[in-house]
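Open question from group meeting: does this chain pack into something compact, or does most of it stay loose? Before anyone orders reagents, we agreed to write out a predicted structure and look at it together. Recording both the input and the output here so the notebook holds the full record.
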Amino acid sequence: MSEIIPTARPIASVPAAATRLRPIEWLICAVAALGFAFDLYEVLVLPLVLRPALASLGPFAPGDPGFDRWVGLLFYVPGLIGGAFGLLGGYLTDRLGRRRVLVWSIGVYTVAAFAASQATTLPQLLVFRCATIMAVPRAVAVAAATAASRVNPASTPAVIIASITGRKYVGPTAVNAV
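Structure tokens returned:
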């Protein structure tokens, strides 16, 4: 039989007091959780409000070609813009720092969400929704990365971030499957 050679040092036991979260780490986790809630809200609320919004902002009835066109635009254009700015957001996070990008993302999200609620035309709604979807996932990703690195810096942050952000879609997926 071949001999097994360990490739890593054994993990030293960590005292229980060292694994407790400090107040700033609790605050970071709370901000990350709030960001996840906003992100999930933005994803799930559009199907509920889209029909009344199109009826009040445009001269459309369900089944009209214009209605279907705006449904497609309001569902897919913000996602494409959000994905593109997600890549740019990663670059900005590396260049400007997590805290600055997090604060600006929350600010942009707040202003854009309020502006979307006050939109009087469909193009305004589309632009403000794009700005909202552009900012919310960036804030969530930065908060998750910060939480992962502050709470458990010894573990792999990518695994923690993937675990946190991946789980938020399990509920809606399970609900939609029923």
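Observations to bring back to the group:
Helices lie at 23-57, 65-96, 98-117, 122-151, 157-167, 170-177.
The radius of gyration is 21 Å.
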